[in-house]
């Protein structure tokens, strides 16, 4: 059985499984270290199955973003009325694995803009961009306009859209705590985010 997972997501317990590539152990739980598809494998010598998240290359024929495309973006700049981001993946599928790293190669990526009024469906005038997103966050969004020659316009209005991967202020991975908070897996400290519902 395979399923699409994001970094920090609990995959299994060390009492029942062995951690494999693309995973790490925290408090006797095996967590995903990268975005991808979890897989189970069992050898005749091991008493427990190994759970891993294989690292794969993205397909080079990724489609161009279009209106209604779902995209994964990395936030590159947050301002009072909008944020800028690099589109990393268009219409992501479980087999398209994106390694969670802080490296960027923006000259090969499309650029996107998320305006304050497109962050959520309600109380749009009360949105504070720094409470929703931080630089480095990986966000699931949808393309709402082809924009200008420099950037696509995206939206995170809707339960399925928002932050899927984030790092805390002290540099630790975070996991969703609610639709508006993520929690540091080490310190337990909560930080505000517009969180995407797990797919």
Automatic annotation (TrEMBL):
Domain (Exosome complex component CSL4 C-terminal): residue spans on this chain: 102-146
Organism: Exophiala viscosa
Domain Exosome complex component N-terminal: 4-37
Keywords, ordered alphabetically: Cytoplasm, Exosome
Chief localisation class: nucleus
GO cellular component: cytoplasm; nuclear exosome (RNase complex); nucleolus
PANTHER family named in the record: 3'-5' EXORIBONUCLEASE CSL4-RELATED, EXOSOME COMPLEX COMPONENT CSL4
Name of the protein described by the UniProt record: Exosome complex subunit Csl4
GO MF: RNA binding
Pfam families: ECR1_N, EXOSC1
Transmembrane segments: none
Compartments, as annotated in UniProt: Nucleus, Nucleolus
UniProt GO BP: RNA processing
InterPro entries: Csl4 (IPR039771), EXOSC1_C (IPR019495), Exosome_cplx_N_dom (IPR025721), NA-bd_OB-fold (IPR012340)
